[in-house]
UniProtKB/TrEMBL annotation:
The lineage of its organism: Bacteria, Bacillati, Bacillota, Hydrogenispora. This is Cysteine synthase. Residues 80-356 form the Tryptophan synthase beta chain-like PALP domain. PANTHER family: CYSTATHIONINE BETA-SYNTHASE (PTHR10314). Its cofactor is pyridoxal 5'-phosphate. It comes from Hydrogenispora ethanolica. Keywords: Pyridoxal phosphate. InterPro entries: Cys_Synth/Cystath_Beta-Synth, TrpB-like_PALP, TrpB-like_PALP_sf. One of its GO terms (biological process) is alpha-amino acid metabolic process.
Amino acid sequence: MTGRKIPFGPTYDEMLHPETMDAALRGKALRALKENELDPVNLFNITWKDGNNQVRKIVLPPELTGVDANIVVMLGKEFPSGSHKVGPAYATLIEGCVDGEIIPGEHTILGPSTGNFGIGVSYICNLMGYKAVVIMPDNMSKERYERIRKYGAELDLTPGTESDVILTLQRTYELKKDPKNRPLAQFELFPNYRFHRHVTGNSAIEAVRGIGNGRIAAFCSAPGSAGTIAAGDAIKAAFPECKIAALEPYECSTLANGGRGQHRIEGIGDKMCTLIHNVLTTDFVTLIYDDDCVKALKVIHDAPHILAKLGVAPEVAEGMRELFGVSGICNILGAIKMAKYLKLGPDDNVVTIATDSFDRYNSVLEDLDRRYLETADFVLERWVRDIFHGSGEDHVFDFRRKDRKEQLFQQKEQDWLPFGYSQAYLDAMRSPQFWEDEYQKVHEYNEKIKAMR
């Protein structure tokens, strides 16, 4: 590694347990998070934990959810760059660095994304001194493009929306033919899986301590890259009874039944079964209407007084306004639906994730206001009752049966054989040992990062 100047960051264990870092370093990093987001020491803020080493979360008020179960939402907004996607971006880049495959000054980083991962790639490359090109569809929210450019990355836009992410993969494969380009391919590279299984999954287990029975009955995540849902593998290891639900837009129900439509939930529903999705541990696939997510976001952001009228404590309603983006609302609605479907009670906990926060969705609500001419209080109150309280048990598909698993394996083959992966490699994913072997590399990379830091 002589002559290569890589600003090293944390190990997987330090991202999970930041309290184990040197105290002076931890303090410096926490100050930088508030004072200078482009200080490389912010790499050490890639964690679900706050300055008191508690998982950042909110337990949603039952007056909002309409269910007895505790809906625990882990909050991604305080990660550097404003989204937990910075974690897998860093993990993928640092693994490439310690393996000697990505060299500063020599390689340009490619980040295929529909938004938050691209923002994370541009941010991490800024901190670690790499040139970055983010490849994403040309019809995403303008806030995403602005933030990527702010961090200094170039944009290479492909036609369509997140439902057309296959085009970004094809463009990435074209660009990586140039030997100077190195893709941080979130849909197919396993640092994404390792980060979420180790860091997000074990943080979720900590997040429910002291809540209900202290266990997790269900974990809900809407796959984009299907990195976040890997947290379910860690959760199932601790709580074998936990059910894992993959959420999809009703309008793009690829996993459920091969549907491939356009939709409004940025960052999920990418018309594929991603390579890193461990379908062995996916118990249910649940569909959520895209416009329900946008309407619910409007209520939470614009109308805390409506929530207060329905019994939510005013300070809680006000405090929720900036916490969620559209995909976070999708995850919340899926958690409510699964709580009803599984008949969960007040001792039971459902955990889900808010990937980012409201700061990149102003334009989405502006579009909603153009589409709905009337959004008076009585309309918003009806939306709460219909979308949250009125959530039914429909569109929940049980994927525990062997034939349903086979459906997902075949979808994965259809999606990834054209990109050069062998049938033998895809068949290996049918064994739980494949996923265990990939996960165990966490310990190897912990030691490599420490040795080279």
